[in-house]
Amino acid sequence: VPTPTGYHHVEDVMGMAISIDVHDDVTGTPGLDEVITWLHHVDATFSPYRLDSAVSRLGLGELTLDEVDTEVAEVLIACERLRVETGGAFDAFSVPAPNGSHLDPSGYVKGWAVQRAADLLEAAGLRDLCINAGGDIVVRGGPRPDPAWRVGLRSPSDPNRVVAVIEATGGLAVATSATYERGAHIVDPRTGQPAGSGLASLTVLGADLGVVDAYATAAFVVGDGGLDWVADRPDVDGVAIDWEGHLQVTASCGAVPGGGRWRLLRPADLDMAPSRRGQEHGETRGRHP
Amino acid sequence: VVDGAVYQNRWGNVQVEATFDASGSLVAVDAIQTPDDRSKSVWINDQAVPRLDAEALQVQSADIHTVSGATYTSTDYRRSLQSAIDAARDAQLTNLA
In what order do the strands lie in the sheet with B12-20? Predict the structure, then answer.
């Protein structure tokens, strides 16, 4: 049995448990301190729950754009671009925020911050890593000794089950927008189903977690045509799950800019995964002379 | 690695990539999507594909590294599948030490 390598840490920050899983063969926890410092810095700067954050003070008119760090301006520009691109289905500027203002870029900030956290780990010399921030994920490299990351997509009806698996190598970002209580959203009077389509969850795959997170939010709000909207975006794909666990997809496999590759598996396919077969039969993978 | 011809299936244009080892034996075949000619999304449940709920994994047998779902809080995390996966990973690494 191959020896597991790397380190694992869960950080409670930004209201979430962020799981940082490194598989590189390293001693200690290279990159971890930098990532933890970064995530807490993002929370202090962007949290709409903290009245003293730059974003809260900006939203409440206590600061102007000239007075905030360029990273804040950079995030707000990205949010505005996403608002236009999604026809307002993603909007950081008009939804009531916890601080009483109408500025809440959280829906982009979380993914943006985690994407940068993965970059920080790579800068520390790591390449095989996974960060899961409350269900939104960045993977890089592979989960050695396994050849590919397997990302389960949660069943809408059972938190302990997955109905599909994304197998990924290289770099991939995965974000899901969902409601897991039937009828929790507005009912569509034409169908009697939850607004839009009766979709329970919508997952978007791509290179950048900030972007796919915002896309997932927007496409889920759009409802019926949401996944077709995803299909029309360059460089991203999507998987929707309905209440019966049926899958709707834009593709069954794909490549993302930066070298990442992915394919969709049904859970039953996992029994055929080479790593598991090899372990069960005590074999070494590959050909023998 | 040899790329095959592009063909059309229900998901759009697909190309098959074959990988051979040094002795010329086929070791892997992967479907790769050609990115610039995309079709609209399709439902993939039909008679040819069994209902997925019946096949859904349970946590005990989950051969997965992580789980994507609606954003959960740090309070929800304790009861989540992700925390179970994390605990299993921690146990692996602890046994190593």
Answer: B2-9, B12-20, B26-38
**Residues A95 and A104: beta-carbon distance below 8 Å:** yes
| Cβ-based contacts of A276 with chain B (< 8 Å) | 63
Q: Which phi and psi (to 5°) does residue A81 adopt?
A: -60, -40
Q: Angle, nearest 10°, between helix axes A209-222 and A70-85?
A: 30
Write out the H or E segment, with its range, that includes residue B28. Answer: strand B26-38
**CB-CB: which of B39, B68, B92 is closest to A151?**
B68
Select the residue of A4, A136, A158 nearest B71 (Cβ to Cβ).
Answer: A136
**pLDDT tens digits, residue range A118-134?**
999 999 999 999 999 99
Give me the residues paired with residue B7 across strands: B14
pLDDT digits (tens, 9 = 90+) for B22-62: 766 555 555 555 444 444 666 554 333 333 333 444 443 44
Dist. CA A229–CA B67, nearest whole Å: 24
ipTM of the complex: 0.84
Which residue bears the tokens 């790579």? Answer: A122
